[in-house]
Design a protein that fits this description.
By secondary structure, the chain is an all-alpha fold. The longest helix is centred in the first third of the chain and has 35 residues. The protein is built from ten helices and no strands. It has one domain. The protein starts with a helix and ends in a 21-residue tail after the last helix.
């Protein structure tokens, strides 16, 4: 297993650091813009690219570029929603996505405002719909970008740091222990499971805000303690 993991990491490391960083930034940009996130695994691209980080400079460059890519992608989604939102919802792609998902995004944004923007970054499917939905709402761009920036920073630092640290630890242990590769795979599976559990918990806690419309104004936020 050590040889397999080492070969994979060496292959990733063989790509020029600038190219890796730009690819990760582009991947997350595509994931966060205009429903492309439904088919582009931006988080996987970031994890793989970050596993080749070997210097502090590469780490900060990756964090900065992934955050930038996320914000550009979110902004593209917002302005496309502002200009073409209704047409997209009525299109074949919008109908394929399903009326219930659009309504859930509408209700969630309506009742939770900026909090919905922040938490949606950690929710499957919804994170690709919310920027478009916000663009069709009364929420201003500066409010949207402030909430999504906070979420993007947390998401980026978490993913990039864990991938970089895991690579460093594997490199250290693989030189001394034959089971290092299995431990590496176990940590990857554990990370995926923990992220899945966190997302499921967030989705469960927020589900009640997606079931019914609010007052039509995303600037007023429902109290989560209300029945």
């Amino acid at each position: 297993m050590n040889e397999l993991i080492s070969s994979f990491l060496d292959a990733v490391s063989s790509v020029d650091p600038i190219s890796r960083t730009l690819l990760a930034s582009l991947g997350i940009l595509l994931e966060t813009s205009f429903l492309i996130g439904l088919v582009i695994p931006g988080d996987t691209i970031v994890l793989i690219a970050s596993s080749a980080i070997t210097t502090t400079g590469q780490y900060y460059a990756m964090v900065g570029m992934v955050i930038l890519g996320s914000l550009i992608g979110e902004s593209i989604g917002f302005f496309i929603g502002r200009r073409f939102g209704p047409q997209i919802r009525a299109s074949w792609l919008g109908r394929k996505l399903g009326v219930k998902r659009w309504e859930a995004a509408d209700n969630y944004l309506d009742r939770r405002g900026g909090i919905a923007v922040f938490l949606s970054r950690f929710l499957p499917v919804l994170h690709s719909i919310i920027p478009l939905t916000v663009g069709m709402s009364q929420m201003r761009y500066r409010q949207f970008i402030a909430w999504t920036a906070a979420a993007c920073v947390i998401w980026t630092v978490t993913y990039v740091t864990l991938a970089a640290v895991q690579r460093e630890r594997y490199t250290e242990f693989s030189q001394r222990f034959d089971w290092a590769g299995w431990a590496f795979m176990g940590l990857v599976v554990g990370f995926v499971f923990v992220m899945w559990a966190i997302k499921k918990r967030i989705a469960y806690s927020q589900a009640k805000f997606m079931d019914a419309p609010g007052d039509g104004d995303p600037n007023t936020i429902d109290d989560p303690l209300d029945p």
